[in-house]
Write a structure and sequence with these properties.
Number of domains: 1
Strand content: 15-25%
Radius of gyration: 21 Å
Distance between the termini: 29 Å
Structural class: alpha+beta
Largest sheet: 5 strands, antiparallel
Number of strands: 5
Oligomer: single chain
Shape: globular
Order of helices and strands: EHHEEEEHH
Number of helices: 4
């Protein structure tokens, strides 16, 4: 994807292999949390490859968190190079910001959200039907008028 300058950052479902990768960080977070009585986080940046579905290794950022007396590991996969945002910044500032944006969008009143909740649907008027050759203003018809 680098050829088109498109990067991605997605949540990655946890599994036993991923959890094993952050065992040390999770133990350190547990020790700190039990010592301070507060939640504790550690981050780890590593390359990862699935056994079957991925064609190559990818960068994974792990959040090893101990909170409420239990482990709360989370993982994200990204195309951003490891020399770009460091692990904590990538997770807390970029990935969590996406979730915060989604929560804010969901909290906005909408006319008809349907099965999607995008800013376009919340702020733009419903589109009008296009004529076969133009949009009624003499412009050529484009896929989205």
């Amino acid at each position: 994807m680098r050829e088109q300058y498109v990067d991605f950052l997605f949540g990655l479902a946890k599994n036993a292999r991923l959890n094993a990768e952050i065992e040390t960080e999770l133990a350190a977070a547990q020790e700190q949390s039990q010592r301070t009585g507060k939640p504790a986080r550690r981050f780890k940046d590593f390359t990862w490859r699935t056994r079957k579905s991925w064609s190559c290794e990818r960068r994974v950022v792990a959040k090893a968190e101990w909170t409420g007396g239990e482990a709360n590991p989370r993982f994200v996969v990204t195309s951003l190079a490891s020399e770009e945002p460091e692990a904590r910044h990538l997770y807390e500032k970029l990935y969590c910001a996406r979730g915060e944006m989604e929560n804010r969008i969901k909290s906005l009143p909408s006319r008809k959200r349907g099965n999607a909740s995008s800013i376009f649907m919340l702020t733009a008027p419903p589109p009008t039907r296009c004529a076969p050759t133009n949009c009624g203003c003499g412009s050529p018809r484009w896929p989205m008028c």
